[in-house]
Amino acid sequence: MEWSKKIYNYGYLLSDDDKVTSADIGVEWSDWVCRDVRSGIKLYVHPLAAYFMHKCSARTHVLVGHAFNPFDMEKDETNILNELERRYNDDNLFYDYVNQLTGVFFYAVIDDKSVSAICDCAGMMGTNYGIINGRVYFSSHSQLIADICGLHDSDYAAGMKEYKLFKLFGWFLPGDETPYEQIHRIIPNTRVALGDGISVERFYPREKYAVSDDYEHSVHAAGKILSDTMKLIAQKWEKPAISLTGGVDSQTTLACANGIQNKFKYYSYISLEREATDAFAEKRICEGLGLEHTIYYIDTDRKAYPDFETADGLIERHYGYLGKGNENDVCKRISLSEQADFDIEVKSWVSEIARASRYKHYLKDKFPDKVSPRQLTTMYKVFLWNRKQAVQTDKLFEKYLSNTRLYEALENTGYPWTEFFVWEIVFGGWGGLALTGEHKLSNDITVPFNNRALLDIMLRTPLEKRKTDAMHKDIIKTMDERLFNLGIHVVNGNETHKRAVCERIYYEINTHLPW
Q1: Phi-psi region for residue 26, left (φ > 0), alpha (ψ -120 to 50) or beta?
Q2: With contact defined as beta carbons under 8 Å apart, do 440 and 319 qualify?
C-alpha cells in the first residue's frame, strides 16, 4: 500500500454523522468500507482493518480488529459476538466473557437509544469518543474526529505541547484526555455509552483482591492461558512472527509457544547501537532452541527513504500533533513495512502491568494505601518548575479517578492502585496511541498478554514475585525448561539504579508539595 493511503491505517470510525465522507481531510473514503449498522449509525473501516457484525432484533454488535478466547479456544469473531449477545442481559456472564478475550479490538453495541463501547483489555486499539454538535463519534484516532469536526487543541494540550519535558515517557495526556476538549478516550476496564448524554461504567475490578495462597497453581494457570493463546494465534494467521527484544516479556511469550514454535517466525531489529545487544541475545536464544531468527537492520538515514516526509507526517498526525516522531522511528516503520515477511506481529506489551514496575521505578517497598491525583501526576510527567501545569494535571487525574469510578473500585476491592496507573494510563494512554498511530503503519499486531483474566491471575501473585520478575521466569521454566536453562537475559539499559534514585527523589518531593 502506498504511504499516502496509510492515513489512519487499520483505523475505524463509528458515527451517525451523514456528512463524514464529504469532509475534505485527505482520506480516500472510497477505499474504506462503509456499513449501515443501526438507527442511522454507520461504520467506516480502513481497507486493511477487519470488522465483524452481529445483528438481532434488539441491538447490533460490532467488533473492529481481532479477538479470540483462550479459555474456550474460540477464534472466530462472529461466534464471539454471538456468545456476547447470548450473555448480554446478565452483567456477570457478559463481563466474565469480555474478561476472557485476548486481542486488539474495539467492541460496540448499538441499540435504538445509544451506542456503548469497550476497548480491548489495555486499550491497544485506539478508542476515542465524543458527542459533537449532537452527533456521536467513536474512532481509533482522536485526530480523525478532530479533522471531520474542525476541532482545535484544548488549552491544556496546547500548554503541554510547549512544555520542554512533555516528551519524557511518551507523548500522551493524563486520564482520558486527548488533544481535544470534546474528545476523550475509553479507559480500559470501563464501558462508555453515548445517547442523550455520556455515561461511564466501570466493570473491573469487581471482586475483592487477595494474594493467591497457591503460587505454583498461579504459574501453571498463567502459563496455560498463554500457551493456549499462542495456539490460537498460530491457527488464526498463516505467517505469525514473534518480535523478540531480549527481555523477560518476549521470552515468556516464546516459552509459551513451546510445542508449536515452528509455526512462528522470529525477528529483532537494529536501528540504534544499543539495540544490537538485545538482537544478538535473541539470536543466540533461537539458535539454542533450533529456531531461525532474522535481524532486520534499519538504515536510519532519512535520505534512503523517498516516503520519509509522508510517513513522518502521518505519525505526527496520528498522535494528534502532540509531538514529532524520532527520525529513527520513522525510518524503522518504513523499513520494517518493506522487509517484514509476516502477516501479524506478536508483541509482548502489556505484560509489564503485572511486573510491579512502579516499585522498581521508585525503589519503593510500599506506596500509600490510597491513590491521590498528585501521586498520578508525579508518575505521569516531571514538573520541576511548572507548578501551574502540575496543578492542572492534578485536576485532570482527579476527574479520571472520579468519572471512571476508580476511587470507589479500589476502595471496595483493595487492588493495588499503582498497577492501574500502568494499566490504564501508561498502556491505555501511551501504548494504545503508539500501537495504533505508529507501529501499525508497518504491520498488524496482536498482544498475547492483553487478557484481563490473565492479568488478574498475575496481579494476585505475591508482590516480591512480581517485583523480581520471578513469576515470569517461573512461567518460562515451567513452559520451556530449555529456554530457561539457556540463562540469556538482557536488562533494560534505561532501567539504571541512578535513574531510579533520581525518580525516587522527585517522587518524594513532588508528592509532598502543596502546590
Answers
A1: left
A2: no
Contact 138, 127 (CB under 8 A): yes
Residue 492: predicted pLDDT? 65
- Here the contacts of 387-393 (C-beta below 8 Å, separation 24 or greater) are 387/513, 387/515, 389/159, 389/160, 389/163, 390/510, 390/513, 390/515, 391/515, 392/156, 392/159, 393/174
Rounded to an integer, what distance in angstroms lies between the CA atom of residue 25 and that of residue 436?
Answer: 19
Alpha-carbon distance 390 to 393, whole Å?
A: 5
Grid cell digits, residue 407: 476511587
- E runs forming strands in 56-127: 60-68, 102-110, 115-119
> Is the Cα dihedral 175, 181, 186, 189 positive or negative?
positive
* 3-class SS string, 225-279: HHHHHHHHHHHHCCCEEEECCCCHHHHHHHHCCCCCHHHCEEEEEECCCCHHHHH
Residue labelled with grid coordinates 518504513: 334
pLDDT at 246: 82
Closest listed residue to residue 45, CA positions, set 60, 55, 59, 35: 35
pLDDT value of residue 1: 72
Shortest CA distance to 267 belongs to which of 286, 252, 253? 286
Q: Is 344 helix (H, G, I), strand (E, B) or coil?
A: strand
Q: What is the mean pLDDT of each run of 10 residues along the chain (515 residues)?
A: 92 97 94 96 98 97 98 98 98 98 98 97 98 97 98 97 92 97 98 96 97 98 98 98 93 98 96 89 96 95 95 96 91 93 96 96 94 97 91 98 97 97 97 96 97 98 97 98 92 74 91 88
Query: DSSP readout, 181-228?
Result: TT-EEPPTTEEEEESSSEEEEE-S--SPP---S-HHHHHHHHHHHHHH
CA separation for the pair 477, 251 (Å, rounded): 11
**Cβ–Cβ < 8 Å for 105, 446:** no
Cα angle, residue 326 at apex, residues 323 and 331 outer, rounded to 5°? 130
Place of cell 468519572: 403
Q: What is the pTM of this model?
A: 0.96
How many other β-carbons are positioned within 10 Å of the β-carbon of residue 508? 12
Half-sphere exposure of 1 (CA within 13 A, CB side): 19
Going 389 to 395 to 396 to 397, the CA torsion angle's sign is positive
Sequence-ordered list of residues with C-beta below 8 angstroms from that of 150, at least 6 positions apart, any chain: none
Distance CA 439, CA 318 (A): 11
Q: What is the pLDDT, as a whole number, of residue 385? A: 85
Name the residue with cell 491497544.
124
What are the two backbone dihedrals, phi and then psi, of residue 472, each rounded to the nearest 5 degrees? Answer: -60, -45
